[in-house]
Design goal:
about 375 residues, alpha/beta, 11 helices, globular, Acetoin utilization protein AcuC, acetoin catabolism
Length: about 375
């Protein structure tokens, strides 16, 4: 389906590094790019560099005093708890502003590529830092690059943007920035805030004119339930909203092996979600698709395979799940991490699901979560909440 695809990359994107014991380890992005290169996926895309976001660009979302605080921490390495830096989640480190601004700049470069038509799809796999607030670092996130990409597109005159977030955690920062802006439809599918950070993302958080949409799934949800929920909520809303550009965040911490969360998806289920969003970009947004990474804390078994599938999907050349990982990449994984690498690009699952149109089960907690969302927002879009 893709006419052109661009991956924004600079080796310096791995400088966003909270330290050796922090879950958000930059090696996950390094291994992803190495696997994508080894499998020939990067041959199917254009690689393009980026510049750090300027202070004026950051100020489209973030308060000026916060940007200055991050810069002071960046110069000294000393904490500033008022800015959220120096906590276990967001340790202070020298160079934090420069590293964060580069990730923000990479997502701005992706947005610019799609807006100017130099690429139909553009991806910043190092991005997706969706928890950062206008004046506070939160949840491993300093500058909110998806929100910045959306704000930049709005400033260019885009009238309707849809944002879909499939990270296991609620996309609270992006929702906060655009909560009262009916030009931006934000949809987040995440583990219930009753069991997972950040404690927000309930169905009743509906924003301006129902443009904030939250699907709060119970812990233990696997491929079939997650895909059932996705298809019951996301396609109808995207078809009705008809955004000019689709922006998506692809945290892969919904995987069963992720150590920080409790959903049970497989690589195969995640790959099915990427393919569905690709189709929806073409069906509802004229093919204009801005893509970011996100969370993901199983650094060897999950993130590199999931995001290599994502890059391949963006490129329009999906990888056969049975494809073996290459010997060179496996060797690199052992040398870089000391861990045993996965042998193939699949978890061996067939992610089938039953569509909600066939009827829903009020005793099923997944169906109850889906119906809570549909009842909260579908009528605000002129849609029937019932299957």
């Amino acid at each position: 389906m893709s006419r052109s695809a661009r991956v924004i990359w600079d080796d310096a994107l791995t400088s966003y590094n909270f330290g050796p014991s922090h879950p958000l380890a930059p090696v996950r992005v390094e291994l992803t790019m190495a696997l994508a290169r080894d499998l020939g996926v990067l041959d199917k895309v254009e690689l393009a560099g980026c510049e750090p976001a300027t202070d004026d660009e950051l100020a489209m979302v973030h308060e000026r005093h916060y940007i200055e605080a991050v810069k002071r921490v960046s110069a000294s390495g000393l904490p500033d708890l008022d800015a959220g830096l120096g906590t276990p989640d967001n340790p202070a480190f020298k160079g934090v502003h420069e590293a964060s601004a580069l990730i923000a700049g990479a997502s701005l470069a992706a947005a610019r590529s799609v807006w100017e038509g130099t690429a139909e799809h553009a991806l910043n796999v190092a991005g997706g830092l969706h928890h950062a607030m206008p004046a506070l670092a939160s949840g491993f996130c300093v500058y909110n690059d998806p929100a910045l990409a959306i704000a930049w597109l709005l400033a260019q005159g885009v009238s309707r943007i849809a944002y879909v977030d499939v990270d296991v955690h609620h996309g609270d920062g992006v929702q906060t920035v655009f909560y009262d802006d009916p030009r931006v439809l934000t949809i987040s599918l995440h583990e219930s805030p009753r069991t997972l950070f950040p404690g927000t993302g309930f169905p009743e958080e509906t924003g301006a004119e129902g443009t904030s949409v939250n699907v709060a799934l119970p812990a233990g949800t696997g491929d079939s339930g997650w895909l059932r929920a996705f298809h019951a909520v996301v396609p109808p809303l995207l078809h009705e909203f008809r955004a000019e550009i689709l922006v998506t965040q692809h945290g892969c911490d919904s995987h069963a092996l992720d150590p920080l969360a409790n959903l049970m998806l497989s690589i195969d289920g995640q790959r099915a979600a990427y393919a569905a969003l690709h189709r929806l970009a073409h069906e509802t947004a004229g093919g204009r698709w801005v893509v970011t990474g996100g969370g993901g804390y199983e650094l060897v078994q999950v993130v590199p395979r999931a995001w290599t599938h994502l890059i391949a999907e963006v490129a329009g050349h999906p990888i056969d799940p049975a494809t073996p990982t290459g010997q060179d990449w496996r060797r690199f994984v052992r040398e870089r991490t000391g861990e045993t690498p996965p042998l193939t690009m699949t978890d061996g699952r067939n992610p089938e699901f039953r569509h909600l149109s066939g009827g829903y089960d009020p005793a099923d907690p997944i169906d109850r979560a889906v119906m809570a969302t549909r009842h909260a927002v579908f009528p605000l879009h002129g849609l029937d909440p019932m299957p």
